[in-house]
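User: My notes are a mess, but here's the protein and S-adenosylmethionine's SMILES. Can you give me a structure?
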Amino acid sequence: MDIFLITAPGLETLLAAEAREKGFKVTSTIPGGVTLRGEWPDVWRANLQLRGANRVLARIAEFRALHLSQLDSLARSHPWGDVLPRIAAVKVEATCVKSKIYHEGAAKQRVETALEAHGYQIDHDGAFNVRVRIDANVVTLSLDTSGESLHKRGYKEAVNKAPMRETMAALFLRAAGFSGKEPLYDPMCGSGTFPIEAAEIARRLDPGRARGFTFQSLADFDATSYAAMGSPPRDAMFHTYGSDRDQGAITMSRANAQRAGVADITHFEAQPLSDINPPCDPPGLVIANPPYGGRIGNIKPLYGLYASFGDRMKAGFKGWRVAIITSESSLAKATGLPFLPAGPIVDHGGIKIRLWQTAPL
Ligand SMILES: C[S@@+](CC[C@H](N)C(=O)[O-])C[C@H]1O[C@@H](n2cnc3c(N)ncnc32)[C@H](O)[C@@H]1O
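Assistant: No problem, the inputs look usable. Here's the predicted complex:
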């Protein structure tokens, strides 16, 4: 079947690269996602192992429908019970693009009625989510197999203001060339997303190891073969480090690292940027998403912060690569760092952000 991985627009190529590296068969990359070809066990493994996907959808049916009556009869004849458990509350969403069936509400209602005819309860908060997409008169029925968004790894109870989603952080780490084989330092670490994500990569811990997924309640799920899918952890070659001027953020980072099982290879200190030094030898990657104007306060007061960050890097971080994620190219330029051409524009909840990175300083 086709398996669709959802990601933020701009990160598709990075997610496709991760999926290929982890042995999935990538068939296409489209705005907002990556399509794989596989079987149910690939769906389970994608949820468990892919760091960059926000959700994994399984395509359970595809047919042509030109009229609502056709959609109605084809949805009714679909063997829903092959996938959904016999008693389930289901939420349906529909989108229509360039199709004779253009009324999304009506399309949604037809599929809901079909599900009700099979004995399912329709509930906007239902545990199962069926997505109906009608594009050029072709209807695809997909099931969200993840449940809660995959950036929720299951360990992060404490979140500082403006956290980066783990899925996005993982793909920015990949874009910055981080593969777990060098030290990493985030000097504006907030609740510790980058150092914790990087420590998990260094130790090869599956991102989904501590959480549950919707697919575990689906008809075909085999708990024994799923349990055997976990990646064998490896010893981390290097540690990861975070600092922030906010003591509360550091307390959160330590608690999050503890829950993630990487407290022994992550180190967090309360420190303003003006005091930072390389936390270890040899050099590795400095990565941070400093405050950006659209999100916390305004842009103008931030030029000084970016400039002093750049000064600290140039003065004390010889041999380190530096990567920042920010919304304004003028803020990146204010660092005075020799950035390579910026990465693709990524949509971060309406804010357009990009990764700027240097070669070793
Ligand atoms: C956008 S948040 C980073 C979020 C983080 N990546 C996460 O996922 O939680 C920016 C962080 O920069 C920190 N910060 C701002 N100015 C700073 C300074 N002068 N020195 C150290 N940290 C600073 C803030 O306390 C905040 O936690």
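Residues 283 and 320 are 5 Å apart (CA to CA).
User: Great, I'll file this with my notes.
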